[in-house]
């Protein structure tokens, strides 16, 4: 009886080229560079298998070395998912956002540069006022908004509503990783809700210094890429059917009762309806400012509550 010789292990370089080939034209990389995505998958697979960090430089230094079989299997599994259309961030389980790396899953939206503009705008404005002590967020998701603000303002406490139990759990994990277990519990209050109509109910009786949110605002599947609408949670993407302005109209209505005089509201908005939304908030304040995203489109609305 003949024994088949074992297949020789592939080198790091060979595996990298193989994954690049698998990803060329794949839906999962969403128009990105296959070489860059292959590197990210390699680093993520290494971290999962060996609980260590493989830098990009080390990946290429090891190029001629034989890669461990377990690493090869995990890398090719991840690449296969990506090639089949799963977003890279869900495959690797992480996404960078401003100053930190966050855990992500299909329970939450993938954090995007547009939301970085929202948070950066809030930080810029709040840094010029008295230090914020209390903030409200509608729709916590992965926690990127509240956690970045908590990391920036040491005395701040955030109260955030969240409909998805899975998202709330992931946000808590992110908070513990970035802020520490004690600070996470004392400074981030997660207000679980069962009904979308109750997401407005704050868990704190006093008025906040600001209210911030990236609410569901898509009016239909034509306003987002196909991959987004197929893989990301619809309750975090889409506004109520036939009423895409629902969340903003409700926010404009209740904001003065939730935020102190002289406080702020910060909201990510759809550029397609930016002027319509601006008019909603102009009914409660003369100080309404629009900020654009990196593409030059209206993306963030800032409103100051009258009184101070």
Please give the radius of gyration in angstroms. Answer: 22 Å
Secondary-structure content class: alpha/beta
- CATH architect. name of the largest domain: 3-Layer(aba) Sandwich
Looking at the structure, the CATH topology of the largest domain is Rossmann fold
Distance between the termini: 89 Å
Q: Give the overall shape, derived from the CA principal axes.
A: elongated
Average pLDDT value?
89
Number of strands: 9
Written as H for each helix and E for each strand, in order along the chain, the element string is HHHHHEEHEHEHHEEHHHEHEE
Query: CATH H-level name of the largest domain... which superfamily?
Result: Vaccinia Virus protein VP39
Q: What's the story with the biggest beta sheet?
A: 7 strands, mixed
Number of helices: 13
The neighbouring-strand order within the major sheet is: 5-4-3-6-7-9-8
């Amino acid at each position: 009886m003949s024994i088949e010789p074992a297949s020789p292990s592939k080198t790091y370089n060979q595996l990298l080229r193989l994954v690049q080939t698998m990803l060329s034209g794949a839906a999962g990389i969403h128009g990105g560079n296959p070489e860059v995505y292959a590197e990210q998958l390699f680093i993520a697979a290494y971290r999962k298998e060996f609980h260590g960090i493989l830098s990009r430089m080390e990946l290429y230094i090891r190029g001629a070395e034989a890669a461990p079989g377990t690493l090869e299997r995990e890398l090719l599994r991840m690449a296969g998912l990506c090639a089949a259309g799963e977003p890279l961030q869900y495959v690797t389980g992480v996404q960078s956002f401003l100053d930190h790396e966050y855990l992500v899953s299909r329970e939450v939206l993938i954090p995007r540069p547009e939301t970085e503009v929202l948070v950066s705008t809030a930080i810029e404005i709040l840094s010029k006022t008295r230090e914020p002590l209390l903030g409200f967020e509608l729709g916590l998701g992965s926690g990127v908004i509240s956690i970045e603000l908590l990391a920036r303002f040491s005395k701040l406490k955030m109260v955030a509503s969240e409909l998805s139990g899975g998202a709330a759990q992931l946000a808590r994990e992110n908070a513990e990783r970035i802020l520490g277990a004690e600070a996470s519990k004392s400074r981030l209050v997660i207000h679980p809700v069962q009904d979308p109509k109750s997401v407005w109910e704050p868990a704190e009786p006093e008025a906040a210094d600001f209210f911030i949110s990236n609410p569901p605002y898509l009016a239909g599947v034509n306003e987002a890429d196909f991959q987004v609408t197929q893989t990301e949670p619809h309750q975090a993407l889409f506004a109520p059917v036939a009423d895409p302005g629902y969340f903003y109209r409700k926010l404009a209505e209740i904001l003065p009762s939730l935020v102190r005089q002289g406080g702020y509201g910060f909201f990510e908005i759809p550029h397609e309806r930016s002027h319509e939304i601006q008019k909603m908030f102009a009914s409660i304040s003369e100080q309404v400012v629009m900020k654009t995203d990196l593409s030059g489109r209206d993306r963030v609305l800032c409103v100051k509550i009258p009184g101070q």
